[in-house]
Design goal:
Elements lengths: L15 H31 L16 H20 L8 H7 L7 H13 L7 H18 L4 H20 L2 H12 L4 H25 L17 H33 L4 H18 L8 H9 L5 H20 L7 H18 L5 H17 L2 H12 L6 H32 L16
């Protein structure tokens, strides 16, 4: 009788270096949990000046403009004191390279803290990712890890920072793996260390804060029908259109502020004044949008005009916040825009169940923007607590939006290649014997 075959083991798991990375992941998980507790606690306490008791038109207070302008001054000062460059690597750039510029972390954290307390339309994930990923990069350099191990360690730092914020190890690991896409033997190391770091972080965060991000948005339950699968396709295309419009807003705001011949602090003050004034007119556009979206869901019928205005204004304030020097992440604002777009769809076409429109758009808009479609499906399922069958149209909507945006990117890349190949036309050759002055 032959012996039972031994299950194969990955060579990476048999090396001491792997278990050292696991140990580092535990440390990074603990560090990320406390970093998230302190940072989220600070922006929550600092943002208590905001009150959205009246979510309708002109529901804000004019003194909010002074607070936002003061935040712009603080952003400019913080940038100068920390010597933070005007342009820094984005969150997704850091994840894809598996490295964080550690010298920029203090400036990013300080400026992001002021930005989020001041009401900028940005999220906390950029600062938290910089802290966690920066700690992973710093530790890798101190321990002189090989390049692949250093990248895995940095990604574990991100997982440690996000474990408490997103309250789900599965969501955190899937988000990082979809964006970073580590291949080869890096995959095993990155996967295992992220699971460890995010699990430790969530355990510490939950034990102290007792709060979770799941089940945030209560939507009416609805029975699944076959036509919901087909309805998800136009919803995904609508999300792609909105992301394209948002990209135009972001590019336009960046170009406008870059061309202003004024000190950087003046740009930040101007940006604060803009999103402060918009906040007075439309209070739901302030901050990251997480709490504001819950307010919109619980407010009942808000009217088509207000929904359109809030959606467009949120795009504007997000673009202005980024272009004027404020620092923050795009995921939470994108979730807000997606949720508002879902409310808008249901308002225009009441036959589309609110739960269907909201969940599909909540996932599809950030799924097209962040290029992490499966993470957004899972995150939406956790946030809305829709049933298993109801996640099928959500997946179709996200994949439709994602593929539509990738098609746009492909066409733009082909056009740039064609323009580069053609090149500028050669200037006409002067006639023989002619001079430049004739």
């Amino acid at each position: 009788m032959s012996a039972a075959p031994t299950p194969p083991t990955s060579p990476a798991l048999q090396r001491p270096e792997f278990w050292a990375l696991v140990g580092y992941a535990v440390v990074l998980g603990v560090f990320g949990a406390f970093a998230a507790l302190i940072f989220v606690g600070a922006i929550t306490f600092g943002g208590k000046w905001y009150d959205a008791a009246d979510p309708g038109w002109l529901g804000g207070h004019w003194w909010w403009v002074a607070v936002a302008a003061a935040a712009g001054v603080a952003v400019g000062i913080a940038r100068r004191l920390t010597r933070l460059p005007w342009t820094t690597p984005g969150l997704f750039d850091d994840l894809q390279t598996g490295s964080v510029e550690t010298k920029l972390v203090p400036g990013i954290v300080a400026v992001s803290l002021v930005s989020l307390i001041g009401g900028a339309s940005l999220g906390p994930e950029k600062a938290l990712g910089s802290m966690g990923g920066g700690a992973g990069t710093w530790l890798a350099r101190r321990r002189k890890l090989a390049k692949a191990d250093a990248q895995a360690n940095t990604l574990a730092g991100f997982a440690g920072a996000y474990g408490g914020l997103f309250s789900s190890t599965v969501i955190v690991v899937m988000l990082i793996m979809e964006i970073a896409r580590p291949g080869g033997q890096r995959f095993t190391k990155a996967l295992a260390t992220q699971i460890v770091a995010s699990s430790v972080s969530f355990g510490v965060y939950f034990a102290i804060a007792g709060a979770v991000f799941l089940g945030e948005y209560t939507v009416p339950q609805y029975g699944f029908e076959d036509w919901h699968l087909l309805a998800a396709i136009p919803l995904g295309l609508f999300a792609a259109v909105l992301v394209t419009v948002l990209a135009v807003f972001v590019r336009g705001a960046a170009t406008l502020f870059d061309r202003l011949q004024v000190p950087d602090v003046v740009k930040s003050v101007l940006g604060g004044v803009i999103f402060g004034v918009v906040g007075v007119v439309l209070p739901l556009t302030m901050f990251s949008g997480s709490d504001q979206l819950k307010t919109m869901l619980g407010a009942g019928a808000l009217g088509l005009g207000l929904l359109v205005a809030v959606l467009v204004a949120k795009m504007l304030t997000f673009a202005v916040s980024q272009g004027s020097g404020f620092v923050g992440g795009p995921i939470f604002p994108a979730l807000f825009m997606g949720g508002v777009a879902g409310l808008l769809v249901h308002e225009v076409i009441p036959g589309v169940p609110l739960g269907l429109a909201f969940s599909c758009m909540l996932a599809a808009l950030p799924g097209a923007m962040v290029a992490a479609p499966f993470t957004m499906v899972l995150l939406t399922a956790f946030l809305t607590q829709v049933g298993a069958l109801q996640t099928a149209p959500v997946l179709i909507a996200v994949v439709t939006a994602f593929l539509a945006m990738e098609s746009v990117k492909f066409l733009l890349a082909r056009r740039r290649q064609a323009d580069a190949a053609t090149g500028p036309a050669d200037p006409p050759t002067p006639a023989s014997g002619a001079t430049q002055g004739e």
